[in-house]
Design goal:
Bound molecules: zinc ion
Number of helices: 6
Number of domains: 2
Radius of gyration: 21 Å
Number of strands: 14
Largest sheet: 6 strands, mixed
Helix content: 10-25%
Order of helices and strands: EHEHHEEEEHHHEEEEEEEE
């Protein structure tokens, strides 16, 4: 399991953390893993994100090299994990997610039972074949992740968030020069050249985080960093998104509800759909989020139990929100 990680191509791996998973999963004492392959020759500079590797657009294409070897469900886990992390923290729009062609640009993902890694930080891997490797099986590598189906799915999501951090140009937090002595993990992979804020133990990019990849949750520092890195693009594009129009709800033959809408103008990265149920006394329960979908999506299906419901939709872009649409009511049989 502690397979040798290859850093000869500048790859960034989280192989060291496999041993950490064991500690976390089985409740043992957490310790930072022993270094496997240390860059003794490499000067450790202050690093967090690598300015020279940032993408020139907030819209970044993604494709799959071998989609037939990864289930739809597993691919959706990656898409959701990325949308719920980096794309929620900043108006980053990862789009496409189709089979790669020879000329595909952007992030090219191969599913393989190997150590997850990217071939270079950020846009350095733009269009690079197998530029990102993600593991969905965890038999040859990271077998702790295949200890249960829940664990396997969690690992897919957590690792996707970490690797997409690299794909956005973020280096390992513990590579920073101001890493405290208490963090024993050795620097790994390419360093950044811009540090943001204090050294961040909670970062999903920090091997010394006692929570493996922070379980795919971005820390406050991660959110600050991604917004600092792409501020020059965000400030020019992210005015507040506008409320979706023509929101309608319809009951389908199978008693599911279809919510449709039209985007208003440009600049939204996602839509959020909320549902609220009517109580017996005619008032409404607190709304729940039904779904958060990519900007290209214009409908959402929902299967509520019997009752009277109302739905509304808003557009978001990073942390900016449009006003909610008016509620649309429907009776589910
Ligand atoms: Zn990494």
């Amino acid at each position: 399991m502690m397979s040798q990680s290859s850093l000869s191509n500048g790859g960034l791996t989280i192989v060291q953390k496999v041993s950490a998973i064991i500690f976390i999963v089985f409740g043992g004492f957490f310790a930072c893993a022993d270094p496997i392959d240390v860059h003794d020759s490499e000067t450790v500079e202050k690093g967090y994100y690598l300015k020279t590797s940032l993408w020139s657009s907030l819209d970044i294409p993604v494709c799959w090299e071998n989609p037939n070897q990864i289930s739809n469900r597993d691919r959706q886990l990656v898409i959701s994990a990325v949308n719920e992390s980096w794309s929620s923290a900043a108006p980053l729009n990862f789009y496409g997610w189709e089979r790669c062609t020879n000329s595909s640009q952007g992030i090219r993902i191969r599913g393989a039972d190997d150590h997850p890694h990217v071939k270079g930080l950020g846009a350095v891997s733009n269009g690079t074949r197998d530029g990102m490797v993600l593991n969905f099986d965890f038999k040859n590598w990271g077998s702790t992740c295949s200890s249960s189906e829940t664990m396997r799915r969690d690992c897919i999501k957590w690792i996707a968030v970490h690797e997409f951090g690299h794909a956005l140009g973020i280096a390992h937090e513990h590579n920073r020069e101001d890493t405290p002595d208490s963090c024993k993990d050795s620097p790994q992979g390419t360093n950044g050249d811009v540090t943001v804020g204090e050294w961040d133990l909670d970062s999903t990019m920090n091997y010394c985080n006692p929570i493996y990849t922070n379980h795919g949750q971005l820390s406050v520092g991660d959110v600050e960093t991604i917004n600092a890195a792409y501020r020059h693009l965000i400030s020019s594009t992210s005015s507040e998104p506008r409320t979706p129009r023509r929101v309608s709800v319809r009951l389908r033959r199978d008693n599911s509800v279809r919510v449709t809408w039209k985007p208003t103008g440009q600049g939204q990265s996602h839509f959020v759909i909320e549902r609220s149920k009517q109580k017996r006394n005619g008032t409404w329960r607190a709304p729940n989020t039904v779904a958060k979908v990519n900007a290209g999506v214009k409908r959402q299906y929902d299967s509520p139990r019997r009752g009277t419901y109302r739905y509304r939709v808003k557009a978001i872009n990073g942390r900016k929100n449009s006003e909610w649409s008016a509620w649309k009511q429907i009776i589910a049989e």
